[in-house]
């Protein structure tokens, strides 16, 4: 029987979607039927999936409230299938904060919800000052200054470890 996998994501600047597309590509190369939805567009039925992956980025310390609401609303169904969650954030650029157990946003996230996915990962995002609004650019620049990150507003740095994304996709197949 063919496994059907759903991926639901929330993205602010597009990096989470880029990661989701890579995961989908890897899964489809391994003959896994995979559907990809933005949290804003998902109107489907979770029960038609054997596995469900939820990906969300961080902005100003929190995941998209729609992702949290989706998880809370569908917890019973999520608990009845294999699930995975991944967070995309710039703090994960630091090796000591790139695991679910050490990433402050992921730790905080799981303290606020009761859901326990089968698999959890953290991926570093992308810093692209030119893409941000004036307010976001100044706020992110301040956060980067405080965390000893790059503050040059010409900076465009993709921190995502694509090998780690590929490994995660492989793990999803074996869930």
Q: Quick one: biggest sheet?
A: 6 strands, mixed
CATH architecture of the largest domain: 3-Layer(aba) Sandwich
How many separate structural domains?
2
The helix tally amounts to 6
Q: What fraction strand?
A: 25-35%
Low-confidence stretches: none
User: For this entry, what is the oligomeric state of its chains?
Assistant: single chain
CATH fold name of the largest domain: Rossmann fold
The radius of gyration is 16 Å
The total count of strands amounts to: 8
What do these coordinates show?
A hairpin with a 2-residue loop joins strand 3 and strand 4. The strands form two sheets. Strands 1, 2, 3, 4, 5 and 6 form a six-stranded mixed beta sheet that branches. The longest helix has 15 residues. The chain is of the alpha/beta class.
Concise description?
This protein is of the alpha/beta class and 175 residues long. The chain has helices spanning 15-29, 65-73, 75-79, 104-112, 134-146, 162-173, and strands at 4-10, 33-38, 51-59, 62-63, 82-89, 119-124, 126-128, 156-158. It contains six helices and eight strands, in the order βαβββααβαββαβα.
Structure characteristics:
2 domains, 175 residues, 6-stranded mixed β-sheet, 36% helix, two-stranded antiparallel ribbon
Helix and strand arrangement:
Elements: E1 4-10, H1 15-29, E2 33-38, E3 51-59, E4 62-63, H2 65-73, H3 75-79, E5 82-89, H4 104-112, E6 119-124, E7 126-128, H5 134-146, E8 156-158, H6 162-173
Parallel strand pairs: 1-2, 1-3, 3-5, 5-6
Antiparallel strand pairs: 3-4, 7-8
Helix pairs in contact: 1-6
């Amino acid at each position: 029987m063919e496994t059907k996998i759903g991926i639901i994501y929330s993205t602010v600047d597009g990096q989470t979607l880029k990661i989701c597309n890579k995961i989908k590509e890897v899964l489809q190369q391994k003959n896994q039927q995979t559907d990809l939805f933005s949290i804003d567009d998902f109107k489907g039925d979770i029960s038609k999936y054997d596995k469900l992956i939820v990906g969300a980025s961080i902005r100003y310390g929190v995941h998209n409230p729609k992702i949290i609401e989706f998880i809370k609303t569908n917890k019973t169904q999520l608990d009845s299938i294999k699930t995975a969650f991944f967070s995309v954030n710039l703090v994960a650029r630091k090796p000591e904060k790139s695991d679910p157990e050490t990433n402050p946003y992921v730790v905080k996230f799981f303290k606020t919800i009761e859901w326990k996915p089968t698999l959890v990962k953290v991926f570093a995002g992308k810093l692209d000052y030119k893409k941000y609004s004036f307010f976001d650019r100044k706020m992110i620049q301040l956060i980067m200054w405080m965390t000893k990150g790059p503050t040059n507003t010409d900076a465009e740095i993709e921190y995502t470890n694509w090998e780690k994304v590929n490994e995660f996709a492989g793990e999803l197949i074996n869930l």
